Amino acid sequence: MGDSGQRHGLAAIGAVILLAASVGGWSWWNASRHRAEFRSALIEGDPGRAPDLVRRYGCGGCHTLTSVRGAAGRVGPPLDTVGQRVFLAGRLPNTPENLARWIHDPHGVDPQTAMPNTGISIDDARNVAAYLLQEAPR
Ligand code: HEC
User: Residue 44, Cβ neighbours under 10 Å: how many?
Assistant: First the structure.
């Protein structure tokens, strides 16, 4: 009697842990998805123009971006999950506007950085930033 009560108790605790883990996992996934939508909504930009810009300005020669064909460079960090970074290039707090700023003018942020200014305009940098923030956290 006492023994089976204990077993039931353990089974109940196990069920609660499983339930908590699955609810937690789901809400984490959901929250990160919403964060991605939320973040890309924080910047005025047209993400649809980005793949072309990434090719035109040679980003893909230095960075890997899985969703853009041919973007497989290994000079700089991969951009697939850049939205999850706390600091951009270890220097700038990762906000949407700072992301656009970095893309437009990395040397204005730090003249020593190995990333060259590519000549991309601030508006096009915002288009790329919107795309990266939409793509990033999966
Ligand atoms: C010649 C190579 C080169 C080109 C071209 C280049 N980058 Fe970079 N990029 C780098 C390097 C190297 C870093 C790391 C810089 C640092 O930490 O100082 C970097 C850093 C970055 C970061 C910060 C990443 C992070 O994880 O913190 C972003 C975002 C970025 N580049 C986007 C772009 C985009 C968009 C383009 C095209 C407009 C581009 N880059 C073109 C080499 C390049």
Answer: 13
In the chain, where the domains are located: 42-135
133 is written with which tokens? 């923030």
pLDDT digits (tens, 9 = 90+) for 107-119: 999 999 999 999 9
Number of residues in the chain? 138
The residue whose CA is least distant from atom 39 of ligand 1 is 59
Atom index in ligand 1 nearest the CA of residue 53 equals 38
Distance 31 CA to ligand 1 centre (A): 27
The residue nearest atom 6 of ligand 1, judged by CA position, is: 59
Instruction: Give me the pLDDT at residue 43, please.
Output: 84
Distance CA 6, CA 2 (A): 6
Question: Which tens digit of pLDDT belongs to each residue from 90-109?
Answer: 999 999 999 999 999 999 99
User: Which CATH code fits 42-135?
Assistant: 1.10.760.10
Q: Supply the Cα-derived Rg of the chain in whole angstroms.
A: 21
> pTM (2 decimals)?
0.78
